[in-house]
Amino acid sequence: MIRWRDGLTQVRRYPSAVAGLLIIAMLIATAIYAVTAIPYSEAQKLWRGGDAWQDLPVNASPAWTDRLLGGDAPRTITVSSEDAPTERQDLGAARLETTTLEVDFPYDGFPSEINLFLEAEFEQGQPFTRVHWRTPDGEEIPIDARRVGERERFSISQDRQLESRLGRAPQVGLFTDAEPGTPDPTVRTGTYELVIETVHFEESARLHAELVVYGQVHGAFGTDHQRRDLAVALLWGTPVALAFGLLAAVGTTVTTLIIAATGVWYGGWVDATIQRLTEVNIILPLLPILVMIGTLYSTSIWLMLGVVVVLGIFSAGIKMYRSMLLPIREAPYIEAARAYGAGGGRIILRYMVPRILPVLIPTFVTLIPTYVFLEASLAVLGLGDPVLPTWGKVLHDAQAQSALYHGFYYWVLSPAALLMLTGLGFAMLGFALDRIFNPRLRNL
Amino acid sequence: MAGAPLLEIENLRLGYATERGTLWAVDGVNLEVRRNEALAVLGESGCGKSSLARTLLRTLPRNAHAPSGQMRLDGRDVLGLPEERFRREVRWVRIALVMQAAMNALNPVVRVGEQVAEPLRVHHRLGRREAHRRAGAAFEEVGIATDFLRRYPHELSGGMRQRAVLAMALVTEPDLVVLDEPTSALDVLTQASIMNVLKRIKAQRGVSFVLITHDIATSSELADRVALMYAGQVVETASAEAFFGHPAHPYSRLLMDSVPRLHQEQPPRAIPGRPPSLLEPPTGCRFAERCPKAYERCSEPPPEVAYDTRHRVRCWLHHRSGGGP
Amino acid sequence: MASAAPVSRTASLLRDLRHLGVFTAKRLIALLLTVLIGVYLTILIANMGGQVDELRMAQIQGEVAEQVRGDPAFQDLDSEEREELMQRQIDLEVERLRLDEPFIVRSFDYLRAAMTLDLGRAEQMHSDAGSRQVYNIIAERLPATLLLFGTANLLVFFVSVFAALSLSRRYGSRLDQTVIGLAPTSAAPAWFYGIFLILLLAFIFPLLPSGGMVAVPPPEDPWAYAASVIRHMALPVAAMFIAQIFISIYSWRTFFLIHSSEDYVEMARAKGLPDALVEQRYILRPTLSPIITSFLLMLIGLWSGAIILEQVFNWPGLGTLLFEAIGHRDTPVIIGSVVIFAYLLAVTVFLLDFLYAILDPRVRIDGGQG
Question: Which CATH architecture describes the domain B5-94+174-318?
Answer without folding.
Answer: 3-Layer(aba) Sandwich (3.40)
